Structure formats: C-alpha cells, structure tokens
Amino acid sequence: MGLQLYDYILSGSAYKARLLMALLGVDYQPVAIDFHPGGEHKKPDFLAINPAGTLPVLVDGDLTLCDSQAILAYLAQKFDPTDTWFPTRDPGVTGRILQWLAFAGRLTDTAGAARLHDMLGRPLNIEKARTNAHMVLRELEAHLTEQGFRGDNFLTGSNPTIADIACFPYTALSPDGGIDHDDYPAIRKWLVAIRRLPGFIEMPGIHRLHDMRDEADA
Amino acid sequence: MTISDVARNDWYPVAIENLLIEGQPETVVLMGETLTILRAADDQIKVTAADGSECPLTLRYGHVWSSIGRPEHALFDIPEAAEEGRRMVDCGPVRVKASPLRVVENFLDIAHFPFVHTDILGAEPHTEVEPYKVEIRDTVDEVWATKVRFFQPQAAKSAEEGQMTDYMYRVPAPCVSILYKTSPPRPGAWDVIGLFVRPISEELCDAYAWMALYDEDSNQTDLVQFQQMIFLQDRSILENQIPRLLPLDPKMEIPTRADTTSVAYRRWLKRKGMTYGAQLVAR
Amino acid sequence: MYGLLKLMNAGLTENDQGSDGWVPVVLSADLPVAGVMRAQIDATQPLDLVVWRSRSGQVSAFDNRCPHRGMRLSFGFVRGERLSCIYHGWQYGEDGACRHIPAHPDMTPPASIGANTYLCREYDGVIWISQNADNPPDLPTFGGQGLRSLSVNRDEADLRKLLAETCIPLSGAGETAPAEASIIAENQTSLVLESTTEAASLQLMIHFQKVTPGKTMLHIQTNPDLPVDLRISLSRWAERFRWSAENMGTMVNSWDASAGEMRP
Amino acid sequence: MIRDTQPLMMNRQTELFRFSGDVSDPDFLDWICHRANRLGLNGWVRKNAAGGFIEALASGPEELLDAMELGCSLGPITVWVETVVRCPHDSDGPMPNGFKILTQAD
To answer: How high is the pLDDT of residue C12?
Structure first.
C-alpha cells in the first residue's frame, strides 16, 4: 500500500503535504476528513489514527506522522533524490531549515487561527491574533529582505526547501483572516516565486498565476 | 438601523439539523440578534431569541430555518428535494465579510468561472457567455435564469474533454439561490445545488451550501469538500468587491449582457424593498 | 571606499517645497515585471489604488476598483501590456481603457469604458503617484539603491520629528565612535540622513507615504553599492527605528552587535 | 484623460428605447446620459411628457445597446423602470457626436 494522506481541502497544513508531494511528483491516496462541518477529526475513528485530532496525517506502511512539518521532512528525505528540499549534510543549513519549520508553527497559531475565525466562525480573540500575525509577518519580511540582499529568493538560499513549503500556506492565506500583504513587498515577491515553481498546485484562497498563460497582445 | 419588514419577516438558515447534538445549544447571529438553537431531550428543536421568546421554526432541506420577525409565508419549496434517488449533502456554513446579497449575486454568475474556478468550472479561451433567458416570474415572485450554457473543462471525474454544460438559476428568496446543473450520470436530469445565506449584519454573513445530487458513487466527504473548494475560491472575490454592500444603483458599474441575471436579481430586490445589505445611492 | 561616495545630487534644499502631489508608493525593485500591488494613500479623499508593471516594464496606477463590478484590481494579473481583473477577466491597457471583455470576445470595447487612472512615474528607483496632471514631477534625485520599504504605525509628522531629534548611529558595529546621523536635506515627500565618520559616509534617503491615519510607509534608499552586511545592518536599523517610533520611546542608542560589520 | 478613439469593428446599429414606469425623476435623464457616454454611444434622450415615458435614441454596437438597456432598467433608486421597449430605427439624419439630453424645445 502506498502513501495515504488524511486530508482536508481547506487546511493550509494539509496543503503543505499536498504541495510538496506535487512538487516531488509523489503519488498518494488522499482520504478526505470532514473537518467542517462534521468535526470528524475529533471523532473516535480518526482519534484512533491521530489522538491529537489534527490534520494532516501521513501513513506510509507502519509509519504514521501527525505533524505537517515532520511530514515535509519525511517526504523530502524519502522522495527527493536531489537532496535539495531538505539537505542535511551541512549542519548549518539543516539548523536554519529547522528554525523555519518551527517558525511555520507561529504562522499557523496566528494567521492560521485568524483565518479559521473569519472563515469558519471559530471563537478567537481576533484582534490579538491579527496583531500577532503581523508581528510574525514582519519577522518574515525582514528575513526575506535580507535574503534579497544576498541574492537569495528563498528562506534558506537560492533554492526552495521544505522551510519555504512550511511557511508558504498560512502566509499566502493570511488575507482570508483579514491580514493583507500590502505592507510586505519581500513577502509578496517570495509568494510569487513559490507559485512559479514547476509543478506548483493551488488551493482555495491561493489562486494560480494567470499571467503564466501569456497571450499575444493585440 | 431599522430592518425593513421584507428582510425581518423572512426565513433564514440558522443550523444544520443533523449536527445539532441533544442538550448542546448553538448560538448564531441573525441580522444583529442572537438566537439560540437547542435540540431538547425530547428531540424537539427550538430557536430562542435573546429575550427568551420563541422564534418561528421550519425544518427543511437539512437545515433549521428561523426568523427574527413573523414570516407570513411558508419556506420556499424545492420539489427536487422530495425526488427519489437523490443524495442530500450539507456542506456547512462559511463566513464571508460581504453583503449576503453579494454572495447570492455571485452564485448567479457564470462569466467568472474561467478566472476564479479555473480548469474546474471554466477555462480560457472558452469565456464567451451566450445569451440566455432571464425573467421575474410574478406568479411565484421568483427570479429565474434559464437556457444558460457554459463550457466546463471537466464536467465529471470521468470526463476527458470539456463540454458545454447547461444551467438554470432560481432565486426564491433574497438570500437564497438555487442552481440546476446537468447531472453527469443522468444527462436528462438536473443536479440541484442550493446556497442558503444567513445575514449576520449587512456586511457579514454565513453561507450554507446544500446539494441534492444524482450520484451513487462519490464519497460524501469528497462531495462536501468539492463544494467548499468552489465556494472558498469565490470568497476572496466577495470580500474584495467595492462597495461591500450590493449596489441597487449601477451607476459605478458596467453590467453587460452576461450580467443579465445580476441585474434582474437587483431589480427584483429593489421592487421588493429588500434594502438590507444593499447600497441605495451609488458611490 | 564605498562609504565615501557622495550624493551626486541630493536634489533637496531647505527651501525646497518638495514635489507637491507626488506620493511614493513602492521601490522599483519591489514591483517586478508583471507585478500587481495595492497602494493606499491617505489624502482628503483617501485613495485605494492598484499599481502594476507590464511585461515591457511600464508602470501604471488605477483606482483599485474594476469598472465592471467593483472587484479590487490589485487581485488581478498582467499579461503583456494589460492588467486583467481576476473576477471576469476584463482587460485594461496602461491608459486605463478597457481592451477586452472575455464574456463578449468579439466586441471591441469603446475607449470610454475604462478604469480611473492616476499619473504614475518611475523615477530614480522609486514609483510615484499623482492625481494632479497639471503638476509636473519635481522629484528628488538621489542616485541610490533601494534598501527596503516598511510600514510604521505612526503618523509621518511623528516620524520626521523622531528622525530629527534622535541620535541615530547609522554606521555599523566595529566603529570606534559611532557617528550621529543628521538630516541634511528635507522636503515634503522625503529626507536625507547622513552619517559621516573618518572611515565612511552613509546616506539614507527616506520617502514618506501616508497610508492611512496613523500609518506611514517608509521607502528607504541608500548609497549605491553597499556591501551586503552593511545593507543588512541598515535594514535592521530601520526595524529598530520602527520599534522605537511605535513604542513612543526614544531611539535605542546602541548598535545591534549581531548586525553586519562595517569593514573599511 | 484623452484617449484615442478606437475604431469599432462591430456593426453599429441605431435603436429607439422607451423606458416607462415610475420614471418621473428629472435626474434620470442625466443618469441615462451618463450611462450612454460611459458606453461610448451616440444619440440623445428626452422626456416624452405626453406619453409619461422617457425615450432615447442610441447608436452603437449591439452588445453596448444591450448594456444600455440593462443599466437603465435598474437605474437610480428614485426610479422604477417597469418596461423597456427597443425598436430599430432607420435614421437618415446625422447622429450627434456623443450623447445629449434634448430639452422640450429641441
């Protein structure tokens, strides 16, 4: 049996796994979980798979992984023969990638939470979440600005890694939670760079780049 | 602000019937008023206003319907809901920071398919909207658009190539739109997709999608998530139209023939005096 | 001797009345080819604009509102020399005129259907907007390099005051005596900060964009050809300035030791 | 801003529009004129006092005449357009350049 991904179409975290598998050309079997409105992720059948009741979950044979960042690391290690998505030979590079994987969690807790509030009506102190999300986005903007000085388009270098995939969804989706990108020119350029990657797939709230289909101008 | 009678005295969705758990009240806001929905131990569902008074109640199409006023009419009928062989799918509420009327109007629009639902409901270069028929049916006081055809790149999961798909649209109430669409497994029949909108305020609403499909194969959750995917593609559009209220005076806009349903809907709202969620003077 | 580069022409004098009516909205490098962005300008009539760059590099600014059904054009996309609305794909040329309506592909739209346009000029690494056609651009010349833009939740006047009053070491760590920066030129849109030591001279030009009440965007340029670590130091200086401004305090007068070193 | 007038490739046609209903608000004429100018149509609009309706002659491509009908059928909030009747008009006389309001004297 191949890979199975317990998935929810509107989950930015599940999208991380879908996106990396698309970029790596990995086949998998999606299993849709009725997160909303059914709340299936908190019901016994699903809790038997992931007691934490969170999505996504990746199952590969006997292995079950319940954290989107861990899933990215696993997929890259197992399926990326070029060793560019999660290079581990240089401890400094590995350390920096792990730092951004942890940072992705802060995006989920702030911008991701604001989105769940605004989109699905989940209870939250929304003003606080938005303020905190802007603080996190300012950190990301500052780092991407410095990467730009170095001539690097991505979080840890000139190539994308799982760090970029981990931070991309909830940054790109933040307008769904009332947090726009007007103040963040470096983030805007980075989001476009990721959307231009060969094999990129979209999700609701992240439209594709229609400009890639260029037309002859009349 | 005062809420016009036509807005007050109508039915709105307040909950999904199946998801109400006995003894666990849910609260929602309907046009600024907080309502509590409770399935009691005797399995009876009740809707109560903040002052404790009981609100009108109708259970239909998988949803709990209520009102902050006194509806003088029964909830609109969807005859297809009673047809044998259909599968009912409740897709859940999605919140949108826009006028409920904008959400309904967008649901009536096909010209955006190639740009907003790319490669699903539409695809360039198949962008042309052929003339279709729109009428306000006075006998039932509803807006109908018929003979709507649009190119769909992948009408069914099994379909290899795109094809022209037929649609009909029906607006039986200001905050409700019903779409009829060629059923892939039964080419002669229509699948029915309803959008039931609850105004929270004039610029904020919850939209519940509901489907009655001829489909024996698909996984229920896959169907729900397909519909959520489509609606969430629309959501960022709806939240970024200026103004947030739906203009009843189109002075700042340029409707063309492809917008005929939109104009008919707005005319109908104007005639009914449905001003909740509407902008009266163009700015 | 990068630090000794002089401004070729700061373009600003104390008496300069500035370029009335022209507002900076983005550094050139932050609006790449086919880029589309939103810019808000706080004015008597607050503006919500879309600013975009065509394939050939031309920049344009319109009201951020599709004439068809009001969708924000900043969600749109650029193909060739046209901006398309994301909602129904209506296409507009750089002059704002509608060129194509996908739902009616055989019709040539009349020139009278169009987006409301603004003057948009790219000048010396910054993109400027004006509503006033009678007012020719008299924009600052700096000849510098874009550093970054950042938003600050304070009014422009507060920021200018803070910049004027505060001792701001612009030079990097490792200097024996961090120099104080002073404003050497200022006009209505911009100011130039200079910091000179024996080893180096640094200039920052800061252009102000009033975004909304209480919010200002700073578009910052520096001397050209600064090394990466110094640019990082200056970017971090800008962050510290923002922190200071937003927290009502005075500028923290110490250099972040983790910032880049300045090596003569 | 001055724009080059584009050549209209489509067949231009001329139609007479009659808007009836509660159309007495005098500002409706301005509204119609504004709409026609926005659509680049040539022609005129006037009040037919005797008939209690508004009539307009408009010339342009069919799609834009349709847009004219749609926009005006909704109109400003002070107006209720019950019906719009359109009929082709063989106009031998010169059409005005642009669109204007005809007063009773015209």
So the answer is: 46
Q: Is B74 a domain residue? A: no
What residues form DSSP beta bridges with B164? Answer: B151
pLDDT at B1: 57
C117 close to D (CB below 8 A)? yes
Residue B59 has pLDDT above 50, yes or no: yes
Is D101 part of any domain?
A: no
pLDDT of residue C262: 35
> How much is the mean pLDDT over chain C?
83
Residue of chain D whose Cα is closest to the Cα of B281: D77
Pairwise CB contact (< 8 Å): C80 & A185 = no
Question: Does B82 touch chain D if contact means CB atoms closer than 8 Å?
Answer: no
Report, in angstroms and rounded to the nearest whole number, the Rg of chain D calculated over CA atoms.
13
3-state secondary structure B232-247: HHHHHHHCCECCCCEE
- Please check whether residues B105 and B62 belong to one and the same domain: no
Put simply, the answer to whether C231 touches A149 (Cβ < 8 Å) is yes
D13/D59 Cα distance (integer angstroms):
5
pLDDT at position A159 over 70: yes
Domain that holds residue D16: 12-93
- CB-nearest partner of A34 from B124, B224, B226: B224
> Residue C49 CA to chain centroid, in angstroms?
14
Number of domains into which chain B is organized: 2
Band of pLDDT at residue C4, cut at 50, 70 and 90: very low
CB pair distance less than 8 Å for B256 and D31: no
What pLDDT shows up at residue A215? 52
For domain C22-130, which CATH number applies: 3.30.1240.10, 1.10.10.920, 2.102.10.10, 2.30.180.10? 2.102.10.10
Work out the angle at residue C93's Cα, subtended by the Cα atoms of residues C22 and C146, and round it to the nearest 5 degrees: 40
ipTM: 0.95
Residues B141, B32, single domain; the answer is: no
Which residues of chain B does D77 touch, with a Cβ-Cβ cutoff of 8 Å? 248-249, 270, 280-281
Q: With 0.95 as the threshold, say if the pTM is over it.
A: no
Question: What number is the average pLDDT over the span A57-61?
Answer: 98
Mapped onto helix, strand or coil, the DSSP state of residue A144 is helix
Question: Who among B90, B94, B220 is closest to A119 (CB)?
Answer: B94
> In this predicted structure, what is the pLDDT of residue C141?
81
- Residues carrying CATH 2.102.10.10, chain C: 22-130
> B110 with B209, same domain?
yes
pLDDT at C261 (0 to 100): 36
- Pairing, β B278-279 against β B246-247: parallel
pLDDT of residue D11: 73
Query: In a 3-state reduction of DSSP, which class is residue B170?
Result: strand
Q: Where in chain C is the domain with CATH 3.30.530?
A: 2-18+140-246
Q: Is residue B44 located within the same domain as residue B96?
A: no
Look at domain C2-18+140-246 and name its CATH class: alpha beta
CB atoms within 10 A of CB C214: 12
Give the model's pLDDT for residue C170: 61
pLDDT digits (tens, 9 = 90+) for C180-199: 778 999 998 999 998 876 66
- Whether B251 and A29 have beta carbons less than 8 Å apart is answered as no
